[in-house]
Amino acid sequence: MDSLDLPKGGQGPPAPDNKDSKLTLKQNFGFIRGTSLVIGSVIGALTYAELNSVVSKSGLTYAYLHDCYGRLPAFLFLWTSATVIVPSMIAISGLAFADYLLTLAPVCGPRPELIVKLCAVAMIVTLMVINCKSNDVAAPVQVICTILKILALLVIVFGGIIRMAQGWTAELRQGFDNSTKESVNIALAFYSINYSYAGWSNVFTIFEEVKNPKRNLLACSGVGILVVTVLYIMANISFLTVLSRKEMMTSSAVAVDWADVVLGSASITMLLAIAVSTFGAAASSLFTGSRIIFAAGRDNVMPEWLSFLHVNNLSPVPAILFTGILAIIFVIPGGIGNIINFLMFPMNILDFLSTTVLFVFRKTKPNAPRIIKNEDDAFKISDIFA
User: Fold this and answer.
1) Cα–Cα distance between 276 and 273 in angstroms, integer?
2) Where do transmembrane segments lie in this chain (predicted)?
3) Among candidates 337, 186, 164, 338, which has minimal Cα distance to 242?
4) Is a pLDDT exceeding 80 seen at residue 42?
5) For the chain, first and last CA: distance in Å?
6) 26: DSSP letter
7) Which of 264, 199, 274 shows the shortest CA–CA distance to 42?
8) What single-letter DSSP state applies at residue 160?
9) Which residues lie across from 210 on neighbouring strands?
10) What is the pLDDT of residues 336-350, one digit of tens each?
11) Phi and psi torsions of 211, nearest 5°
């Protein structure tokens, strides 16, 4: 079993008489689409920028682990990612989308759980159809969702700035007063928020589809990290400006409660923007996850039929359907919190293993060409925490 060696070209399916040819995905991702993919999921890709310049292959962590540690760790990662991590992330986004969207249709008493799940399944099926249609449809959807997501965050940021200028700073002045000092609770807090910052490596899963990867991969990573970090920090400051900590802790939808206070009757626009945001996150997970499965099928690590492409638009239809169906299965038991708790342990373990590859390659492949190499000790520390 060789590592996932995906050609850099994009010439489409091989000729029928060339048995040694490999299917390649079409190159149609420039700077804008690539950056949208990063921002749509989020943060920390400098480690992967260096790794991908050393191992210039699609398949992301699978390719890195295979090249560094061999077959078994890479194989275990691939099946864990394909059957647990990616479908779980899509299911979480689908359930969140359903919760926010159904808020527009208030009912007497608790919202029926079955309706929420059916709405989530409908969203996942819609994404499957869009992604199967072609990259020319899926990629613009991701860009549009990202733009709307950023606009919603900007409204929150500037709304918070205006409130701070009006003197709404009581919660901010309290700082960390009355916060827990127990190490277990602090660790759990970091563990929980990791999901919000997951996806920072997504652009590297579509290596062979990116135009001019040496330039665009680094640019997408840098811009995505900067934009997301600033927006997330400022948005949370805005939440603390408008809402009390108790209100935030007891709220089922902090952004909606924020919008009710700041925007009043116009809060419905924030609700729709958040729904679109979760739709975009699911779209990003399905898009990138199906590419990993496609590469694995082509490398015979997973069934070969998962590497089949649509004859006209070159979309990895079997891989998309496989990922989407697993996501629907994860929706059935429901419970966003339960799925996150189930998801984060394997995800953090695999991210940690990927980061260790960085240091191994710096010792074993010191002269390999790199898009970026962090020599400063501070960056080495940041690599560990990434």
Assistant:
1) 5
2) 31-51, 72-102, 114-131, 143-166, 186-205, 217-242, 262-287, 308-333, 339-361
3) 164
4) no
5) 30
6) -
7) 199
8) H
9) 29
10) 777 877 777 787 787
11) -70, 135
Cα 96 to Cα 178: distance, rounded to the nearest angstrom: 30
Domains and CATH numbers, the chain: 31-378 (1.20.1740.10)
- DSSP result, 299-313: TTSS-GGGG---TTT
List the one residue out of 320, 324, 281 whose CA is nearest residue 145: 281
Number of neighbouring beta carbons within 10 Å of residue 223: 15
> Which residue, chain included where needed, has tokens 């409204």?
155
Q: How far is CA 350 from CA 85, 106, 163, 342, 353, in A?
A: 10, 40, 41, 14, 5
Q: What is the pTM of this model?
A: 0.70
* Of 36 and 368, more confident: 368
What per-residue confidence (pLDDT) applies to 172?
80
Six-digit token string for 291:
């590419």
pLDDT at 376 over 60: no
Pick the closest to residue 286 from 138, 120, 117 (CA basis): 138
| Selection from 365, 349, 358 nearest residue 383 by Cα | 358
Tokens representing residue 152 in the block? 């919603």
